[in-house]
Write a structure and sequence with these properties.
Blueprint (H helix, E strand, L loop, with lengths): L1 E20 L5 E21 L4 E3 L14 H13 L4 E7 L10 H16 L6 H8 L6 H6 L3 E4 L4 E4 L6 E6 L6 H5 L13 H10 L18 H7 L1 H12 L4 E3 L6 E5 L2 H15 L10 E6 L13
Helix pairs in contact: 1-2, 7-8
Amino acid sequence: MALYDVPAPAKINLFLHVTGRRADGYHTLETVFRFIDLCDSLSFDLRRDGQIERDEDAGLPGLAPQDDLVLRAAHALQKATGTRQGVQIRYEKHIPAGGGLGGGSSDAATTLIALNRLWQTGLSRDELMALARPLGADVPVFIFGRPAFARGIGDVLEPVELPERSYLVVHPPQHVPTAAVFSAPDLTRNTESVRITVFADWQKINAPKNGLIEGGLFGSNDLEPVVFAKYPKVEQAAKWLYDRGFSARMSGSGACIFVEFVTLQQARMSQQQIISKISGVHGNAFIQESWACPGLIDHPLLHWVSS
């Protein structure tokens, strides 16, 4: 038995507000998560010997097995359910590490969902989310499976309705470690809370006119000033987009920057324009790669899990 080419989609944060800091050092946040059609791909071959292993070329170069969220997720499910089955895992990475797109978290969530099916362990969505929380703050939303308004440390999730949109995502050639961003002394930690209804009303007021998005993006990403100060190529990419009239925003703790469009065609046209323009710019290494992709209404594995 096996499951092949199982998708693990990236996420973007449409906004990210840091509203406080708890006594235990964790930050309280408000954000809206959206999945996009930029996916890693994982395959799982059932093993009867109980061993959990990954192919030699899986994951990221230099990533130790004990630090691999995919392996940690598989071991967590095996331990929680007592199954004696194992798995051979291989995966193909497309989501950049350290890009603020949740690639490692998404891979871990897809592993929990896929192995719950392959091993026939029968855990519910809530039970899988409980296993996901110790793996990382972003892992539960991928199990949740829907665009979500998140509070707390990102673990209090409410479904949110989002319109069809497409995105241009650009990746500056820098790896941004999340922990360093949140520990920065100059990080603003007192943004005023907003209600989900405020975000919903804003979407209605700022609906596209004549096929164009007007009014920019809701809120802000409070991590941008810290990242821009420490990682100049991220700031350079964002400024380059701003200067050409794009309403651009960093996702998560960076480094990726996104621009929202009504249609995929618009995103692809803008991608081609950007590629043609930077090809003639001296020292254009502030954009390493880019993707034009639609936003997803739901996670592609939403119905693999019973609610």
